[in-house]
Design a protein that fits this description.
globular; Ald_DH_CS_CYS; alpha/beta; 493 residues; oxidoreductase; NAD-dependent succinate-semialdehyde dehydrogenase
């Protein structure tokens, strides 16, 4: 159905491979419904219509996924690394071959513009590709012995059964970022996707099965989060949990996992600052801010939550940034002209509006956008002269609201950037190598984007410091998160 101007309108939810859409969980190579038929509704954030269902598994069914992973582990761990890599390579090829269908599925359940969904599929596939190659690079060590007649060896071994709990904002990429290194290392895994966006995870399982991932090696389950979380943390079989989500839930998982000393990877809340220094290139600064703030409608843990502009560039930056923000088109993710999709739910809209109201009450001025006109579509919004103690400076907004705060000196800007218990990502814009070196060194963050808002890729370690979590995903460091080191001391030689 075309738009009034003749441009094409994609038919919502139509895939070239309809069988990628599943309404059952994937356990031990089987697709299973919930005991008693209990389901979780999955809706389209733009229309509000129910577009699918996911089974709400019973505790016994969820436990069966742990059993399946436990049974599958010994054989999978013994598969040659090159052969595990070959299976991952086939999985990657299948994901790329079905990129458009997977992107449409993401847009359908998440709401993000289709062009961003396509980018997410490519990004998520990148982890599978990287770890397909990395599987064969797990090497041990022979350490020179301090005494004669001994050989000291170190061998990497897979941890065992792992669990991945993934969020709704990047439903495909967050799963591949966890599952690909786990499988490459020789671990088996139980994945629990967010209830709002389970369809992408099920589609990945379809393609993993076609790629040759054996039964029980990858399991995807849905159900009551508290029940599944308790089951995973209390099971002695599950040796590692990887979680992406709020700091509050991460702390609960950490506490619950402590009695069994589980390995944890936690990518938690962020409060990313963006520092724009006087010596920044204006066009680069505006583009960096636009991407860092408004990608995925601002629903990103590494979104620029606080924008600080030094006094001599602040006015020109605000003028140029406001022009670009006003040009962003909010709308249906299936409309190729849309730049901003709907927020995931009404609670998300309410939080953005709360932060906007608080900023205005504190003296801020709206330069672009404003409140929602209804539904879950929030216009991209820019406010200036935000008070340093405004809500949006201390809480994750998780939506398309940008607040700009002026600062005077580098020392003040860095202090403002560090005035948070979080430290996931940060950004800075400058053309001065000394400014970049000093600010990049002094900012307390696990990742720093310099003159760019796009920092994520499979080949780098992704993760934070302080209350933003622990562990790293991506790169060889991400593979190490799924490995134990075994030291062997051989005497009598």
């Amino acid at each position: 159905m075309p738009h009034a101007d003749g441009s094409p309108q994609l038919e919502r939810g139509k895939l070239s491979r309809p069988d990628l859409i599943r309404d059952k969980a994937y356990v031990n190579g089987q697709w299973i419904a919930a005991d008693g038929g209990a389901v979780i509704d999955v809706d389209d954030p733009f229309t509000g219509e129910i577009i699918g269902h996911a089974p709400s598994l019973s505790e016994q069914q969820a436990r069966s996924s742990i059993d399946a992973a436990e049974r599958a582990f010994p054989a999978w761990a013994k598969v040659l690394t090159r052969n595990r890599g070959a299976i991952l390579r086939r999985w990657f090829d299948l994901v790329i071959a079905h990129q458009e269908d997977l992107a449409r599925l993401i847009t359908l359940e998440n709401g993000k513009p289709l062009k961003e969904a396509r980018a997410e599929v490519a990004y998520g596939a990148g982890f599978i590709e990287f770890y397909a190659d990395e599987a064969g690079r797990m090497i041990g060590e022979i350490i020179p012995a301090p005494v004669a007649g001994r050989r000291l060896m170190v061998e990497p071994e897979p941890i065992g059964v792992c669990a991945a709990i993934t969020p709704w904002n990047f439903p495909l990429a967050m799963l591949t970022r966890k599952a690909a290194p786990a499988l490459a290392a020789g671990c088996t895994i139980i994945a629990k996707p967010a209830s709002q966006t389970p369809l992408s995870a099920y589609a990945l399982a379809v393609l993993a099965e076609e790629a040759g991932v054996p039964a029980g090696v990858l399991n995807v389950i849905t159900g009551k989060a508290s029940m599944i979380g308790k089951l995973l943390t209390s099971s002695p079989v599950v040796r590692k949990i990887s979680f992406t989500g709020s700091t509050e839930i991460g702390a609960q998982l950490m506490e619950a996992s402590a009695p069994l000393i589980k390995r944890l990877s936690l990518e938690l809340g962020g409060n990313a600052p963006l520092l724009i220094f006087d010596d920044a290139d204006l066009e680069t600064a505006v583009e960096t801010a636009l991407v860092a703030k408004f990608r995925n409608s601002g629903q990103s843990c590494i979104a620029a939550n606080r924008i600080y502009a030094q006094k001599d560039i602040c006015e020109s930056f605000l003028d140029a940034f406001a022009e670009r923000v006003n040009a962003l088109a909010p709308g249906d993710g299936f409309d190729e002209r849309s730049d901003i999709g709907p927020l995931i739910d009404k609670a998300g809209v309410a939080k953005v509006e709360e932060h906007l109201d608080d900023a205005v009450k504190g003296g801020a001025t709206i330069l672009a956008g404003g409140k929602s006109s209804g539904g879950q579509l929030m216009p991209p919004t820019l406010v200036r002269d935000v008070a340093p103690d405004a809500l949006l400076t201390s809480e994750e907004t998780f939506g398309p609201l940008a607040g700009v705060i002026p600062f005077e000196t580098m020392e003040e800007g860095v202090a403002l950037a560090n005035n948070t218990p979080f430290g996931l990502a940060a950004y800075l814009c400058s053309e001065n190598p000394a400014t970049i070196a000093r600010a990049g060194r002094d900012i307390e963050s696990g990742m720093v984007g310099i003159n760019t808002g796009l920092i994520s890729t499979a080949v780098v370690p992704f993760g934070g410091v302080k209350m933003s979590g622990l562990g790293r995903e991506g790169s060889s460091h991400g593979l190490a998160e799924y490995l134990n080191l075994k030291y062997l001391c051989q005497a009598g030689l």
